[in-house]
Amino acid sequence: MARIVFELEIEAPAAAVVRALDSAEGIAGWWTGDVDFAGGEGSIMRVGFPVAPKPFELRVDGVDDKLVRWTSVGDFPPHWSGTTITWTLTPTDGGTQVHFGHDGWASDDGPFPGAAMTWGQLMTSLKQYVETGRGTPLYRKD
C-alpha cells in the first residue's frame, strides 16, 4: 500500500486547525467552496470540483484536539475508495505541528503522484487559511 505524508507547523492552536478540518466554512476556506458538511464525528462530507463528475464523500471517523480522521466512503474517485486521511495534531511552542497521512492507496503509480502534488498545494492553503483567514482553495464557489 502507498501513502502520502506531509508535516507542517501552523502558527495557531490545534482548535483552530480542527475548525478548518471539521466545518463547511473551514473546508471552503482552504480546499473547495463546493462543500456539504455538518461536521462532527460520523458525519459525511461531500466536496465537489467543476472538473469532477460527482462529489468526493468522506466520513469523519474521529475528531478531537489531537486527531482528525476521514475515510473515503464514496465510489468517486475510485482510487480513493476506502482510503483514510489522518491529521495528527501536536502542540508546539509556536502553534501546532500537523502530520498528514493519506493511507490505503493500491499503488504509487497512476493517479497517485498527481494526488500527492495536490495535497502538497493544499497543505500550504490550509496553513494560510488557519493563520490568516484566507487560503487558496482549488475552487471558490462565489
Order of neighbouring strands in the sheet with most strands? 1-7-6-5-4-3-2
The averaged pLDDT comes out at 96
* Text of the CATH class: Alpha Beta
Radius of gyration: 14 Å
Shape: globular
The description of the largest β-sheet is: 7 strands, antiparallel
Q: Name the CATH architecture.
A: 2-Layer Sandwich
Number of continuous helical runs: 3
- Percent of residues in helices: 25-40%
User: What structural category do the secondary elements indicate?
Assistant: alpha+beta
Q: List the domain count as a whole number.
A: 1
The percentage of residues in β strands lies in 35-45%
Q: What sequence of helices (H) and strands (E) makes up the elements?
A: EHHEEEEEEH
What is the fold-level CATH name, i.e. the topology? Alpha-D-Glucose-1,6-Bisphosphate, Chain A, domain 4
Short recap of the structure:
InterPro entries: ASHA1/2-like_C (IPR013538), START-like_dom_sf (IPR023393). Belongs to the AHA1 family. This protein has three helices and seven strands, in the order E-H-H-E-E-E-E-E-E-H.
Report on this model:
This protein has helices at 14-21, 24-30, 112-132; strands spanning 2-10, 34-36, 44-48, 56-63, 67-72, 84-92, 95-105. The relative contact order is 0.25. The protein has a single domain, classed as 2-Layer Sandwich (Alpha-D-Glucose-1,6-Bisphosphate, Chain A, domain 4), CATH 3.30.530. With 142 residues, the protein is an alpha+beta fold. The chain has a 7-stranded antiparallel beta sheet with strand order 1-7-6-5-4-3-2, covered by helices on one side. The protein contains 3 helices and 7 strands; from the N terminus they run βααββββββα. Belongs to the AHA1 family. Residues 12-131 form the Activator of Hsp90 ATPase homologue 1/2-like C-terminal domain.
